[in-house]
Amino acid sequence: MAETSPALPRHIGIIMDGNGRWARQRGLRRSAGHRAGIQAIRRVMEAADTAGVHCLTLYAFSTENWSRPRQEVATLMRLFEQTMQAEVDELHRNGVRIRVIGRRQQLSKRLQKLVGDAERRTEANLTGVLNVAINYGGRAEIVDGVRQLAASGADLSQLEEADLAGALYTAGLPDPDLIIRTAGEMRTSNFLIWQAAYAELYVTQTLWPDFDAADLRAALADYSARVRRFGGVPKPR
Ligand code: IPE
Ligand code: IPE
Ligand code: MG
Hints:
The protein is an alpha/beta fold. It has a single domain (12-142, 176-226), classed as Undecaprenyl pyrophosphate synthetase. Helix content is 41%, strand content 15%. A six-stranded parallel β-sheet has the order 3-4-2-1-5-6, with helices on both faces. The chain binds 3-methylbut-3-enyl trihydrogen diphosphate (2 copies) and magnesium ion. The site of one 3-methylbut-3-enyl trihydrogen diphosphate has 11 residues, from β2.
């Protein structure tokens, strides 16, 4: 592919990290950090829309996050249920198509129902796409994709990259151009490991509950100055 320096990412993935540290800095429980993190989601979605980015994938809960204390997992799941219920109307009004990506059989029946309803209700919306990754793991996603292809009778000895890409949870969406990680850690933690093969990475020290429109603009400005080569050579100036 040719070298490009696109002004705007078509799809942004966000690893929303640092809720626990945000709470600790304030002498609060981790659950307070998670609640504050939900507020940040609203702000950032609005800012992305204003900036002209209409496809977002938010990492909310990884397949590894089940190893957290029971109480914290329960709090997170309750927050996902409440938020799904509270936000769908407005997202729908704004023309956003909601999808939850991840292994949802392990989610509560209640959350599965809320998710299914939200997806059905918003499936024809064309203004924006919001993927929420819950019980999501990039490795699990690849395994699920291969299993799905095998079950459909595909000849796996002839498997092409496009076949597998089409069997992932993100089938039909552009790959993320930009992955933002808050709270400073420089790792992917199993997020979109296939799709982000050539994504630009942006790590900020800002903790997720503090992330706001200005932080998003800073990430976009940084992105727009990147030179993407996709393995090619830079064009002579
Ligand atoms: C991110 O914040 C939220 C989830 C992973 C669910 P953390 O809870 O990981 O916050 P830190 O990393 O402990 O600060
Ligand atoms: C990544 O954050 C997962 C989500 C943001 C949902 P973690 O806090 O789980 O990542 P590690 O454990 O620091 O790699
Ligand atoms: Mg963390």
